[in-house]
Design brief:
The chain has 12 helices and 17 strands. Strand 5, helix 5 and strand 6 form a beta-alpha-beta unit. Helix 5 runs parallel beside helix 6. The relative contact order is 0.14.
Length: 446
């Protein structure tokens, strides 16, 4: 079957429409913006897409590729296998206000909305919360003055925060180190100029927005700890819906792989696994590389998290096969929701650097593939945002689902924490010996 593009053109400036299939197998006719066509790598005449930067053969996401090329009944079944069912049905699209839709077209960001439901309970009322995740590219070249780069990103973010507020978002999370280029690949110390105190400019700007919109905002920044020798940390600041700072969490696990030279700037965090109780629910932040560590996810669950956010910055060649799996598995294993956020775009730096792999020096980290999404404790998840454009994904969820899944699967009840604890306590000792039972005939000579 050929790609599902039904378009008519007389001039490049005329609107282009395409038939887009919805998750329930229906179709809607929507205009394709010029910016969206550019992202796909299409020509102005609307012909078959070609591969643009960050696309999958010209498509913004795997979901979009499948939707455009599969028959409705096949696409529906493939979606069931890839995204799962929420309470026996596909995750439902969430209607968003026209003002937010118009903003997404005006400021060129991908906008998606979905709704997770839970079973009706006898004693508890539904606990409905709307969560928003923002992925964004940088705005100015990395050679621009630091203050100008930060200001330009903040102006961009403001538009998406407003759209989130208009859509009724209660808790909003930004990507890792959102107010700067992810320059830690370079090992150059000048990028420390982007660091700021917990109550710095970025936090103060978001505090005003949080209070204005009655919204909890999670702001992952590069922190400079003024009171402790101006030490640098990778930190998430949790801002309350009254504009107050509820607390902070510092990144627990620091990567030392590929171009992720982050330990040249900051080391492992010292805040443990805090869960922040807000008016909208209990939330936690598992920053980037911590998603590769199952015990990190577990600890937030043991402390009572209902939603865990995973603000990240990761590139395709290194991690993309893991991206749709790890957070979803964590949501299942720990009976909470997970919001996964990844930055988007390719960031070019003035001085070339090497990766320690024998390959030639280069000036960029690679393509940050966006693809932010939300996972549910019942194994369902949303489609991803674009791989190549800024985006805002909004998910409405009933937090009652967390306890319902705990009751259903009994993971906490059937876990053997005393057994795990004994092993871990033994493992960290210098005299640890693995529990390996060797076949007595393995080394016996014949």
């Amino acid at each position: 079957m050929s790609p599902n593009y039904s378009r008519k053109l007389s001039e490049a400036k005329e609107p282009i429409y395409e038939e887009r299939r919805t998750m329930d197998g229906g179709c809607v006719r929507e205009e394709v913006s010029e910016d969206e066509r550019k992202c796909r790598g299409e020509q102005a005449n609307g012909e078959k897409p070609t591969a643009g930067e960050g696309t999958i053969k010209g498509y913004e996401s795997l979901h979009q590729l499948l939707q455009a090329n599969l028959k409705p009944e096949i696409f529906q079944e493939v979606s069931r296998l890839l995204l799962g069912f929420n309470c026996g049905k596909a995750v439902e699209p969430l209607g968003l206000p026209e003002s937010a839709t118009q903003a997404s077209m005006r400021f060129d960001f991908d906008l998606k909305g979905f709704s997770f439901s839970a079973d009706k309970e006898l004693l508890r009322e539904p606990r409905i919360v709307r969560v928003g995740l923002i992925q964004n590219s940088i705005v100015l070249p990395t050679t621009a003055p630091v203050s100008e780069q930060k200001s330009a990103i903040m102006n961009k973010i403001n538009q998406m925060v407003d759209a989130a507020a208009e859509s009724g978002v209660n808790i909003l999370c930004l990507q890792e180190a959102w107010m700067m280029p992810f320059a830690f690949c370079t090992r150059e110390k000048k990028w420390c100029d982007f660091a700021e105190p917990i109550n710095g400019d970025s936090t103060q700007s978001l505090q005003k927005l949080a209070q204005k919109h009655n919204m909890v905002i999670i702001s992952p920044i590069l922190e400079r700890d003024i009171n402790h020798g101006e030490t640098i940390w990778n930190t998430a600041v949790v801002i309350g819906n009254h504009g107050n700072i509820i607390g902070k969490h510092r990144k627990n696990h620091i990567p030392r792989v590929g171009d992720f030279n982050e330990s040249s700037y900051y080391m492992e965090g010292d805040t443990g696994h805090p869960v922040f109780e807000t008016v909208f629910g209990k939330i936690a932040v598992n920053i980037c590389y911590g998603r590769h560590h199952p015990l990190n996810w577990l600890a937030f669950g043991l402390n009572g998290a209902e939603i865990v956010f995973n603000p990240s910055a990761t590139v395709g060649e290194l991690s993309e096969p893991m991206w749709p799996i790890e957070a979803r598995n964590a949501a299942i294993a720990n009976s909470y929701f997970v919001g996964s956020i990844n930055r988007v775009g390719t960031e070019v730096f003035p001085n070339p650097f090497t990766s320690g792999d024998g390959k030639p020096q280069h000036n960029d980290f690679g393509h940050f593939y966006g693809s932010s999404y939300v996972s549910s404790p019942d194994a369902s998840c949303t489609p991803c945002l674009s791989r190549c454009r800024d985006g805002l994904i909004i998910a409405e969820m009933d937090l009652n689902l967390c306890r319902q899944l705990k009751d259903k699967w009994g993971f906490r009840m059937t876990a053997r924490y005393e057994m795990y604890s004994a092993l871990l306590s033994s493992y960290i000792r210098p005299d640890f010996e693995p529990q390996v039972v060797t076949d007595p005939l393995l080394h016996k000579r014949s």
